[in-house]
Write a structure and sequence with these properties.
InterPro entries: Helicase_C-like, P-loop_NTPase. It comes from Cirrhinus mrigala (Mrigala). By secondary structure, the chain is of the alpha/beta class. Helices cover 42% and strands 13% of the residues. The chain contains six helices and five strands, in the order H-E-H-E-H-E-E-H-E-H-H. Strands 2-3-1-4-5 form a five-stranded parallel beta sheet, sandwiched between helices. The two termini are 26 Å apart.
Length: 165
C-alpha cells in the first residue's frame, strides 16, 4: 500500500478491524522505539497487544512469544528480531508498518503467515520517500505469484526515472 506516513495508523486500524477476529496478527516496525510507540497507540485505540524487540530481555521475550503462540495475546508489534523462526499456527496477517529495506527481510516477515496450508495475508506500507525499496517488494510479489498493485509499479517506475535524471 503506497501511503503517506501520517495516514498509516488509520489504515492499520481499518485493516485490523477486518482481520483481527480471524486470527493472530504481527505488525512489523523498523525500530524499538517505533514498536513501543505503536504499542501505546494501539492500546489507546482498545487493541490489546504486546511488543517484541531486541531491547526486551530474553526471559520476557520468551514469555511474550509463548503468549502469542498460545493465543493469550493475538496482536504483536515487533521488529525483525521476531521475524526469523517465529511460527504461529493461526497467524492470519502480517503488516509491514515500516517498509522492509531488504528483499530478505520482506520475505522473512511476510513468510510468517499462511503456513501449513492456512490462508494468510500480508500488507506493506510504503511511502513515496521509500520508493527505492519498491523493486524488492515487486520482486517478492511476482515470485510468490501475487498481483503487483499498479500504484507500487508506478512508484518504482518514477523512482527509476529519477535515478536516470
Amino acid at each position: 500500500i503506497v501511503i503517506e506516513e501520517e495516514k498509516k495508523f488509520l489504515k492499520l486500524l481499518e485493516i485490523l478491524g477486518h482481520y483481527q477476529e480471524k486470527g493472530s496478527v504481527i505488525i512489523f516496525v523498523d525500530k524499538q522505539e517505533h514498536a513501543d510507540g505503536l504499542l501505546k497507540d494501539l492500546m489507546k485505540a482498545s487493541y490489546p497487544c504486546m511488543s517484541l524487540h531486541g531491547g526486551i530481555d530474553q526471559y520476557d521475550r520468551d514469555s511474550i512469544i509463548n503468549d502469542f503462540k498460545n493465543g493469550a495475546c493475538r496482536l504483536l508489534v515487533a521488529t525483525s528480531v521476531a521475524a526469523r523462526g517465529l511460527d504461529v499456527k493461526q497467524l492470519i496477517l502480517v503488516v509491514n508498518y515500516s517498509c522492509p529495506n531488504h528483499y530478505e527481510d520482506y520475505v522473512h516477515r511476510a513468510g510468517r503467515t499462511g503456513r501449513a496450508g492456512n490462508k494468510g495475508y500480508a500488507y506493506t506500507f510504503i511511502t513515496e520517500e521509500q520508493a527505492r525499496y519498491a523493486g524488492d517488494i515487486i520482486k517478492a510479489l511476482e515470485l510468490s505469484g501475487s498481483a503487483v498493485p499498479p500504484e507500487l509499479e508506478l512508484l518504482w517506475t518514477n523512482f527509476k526515472e529519477q535515478q536516470k535524471a
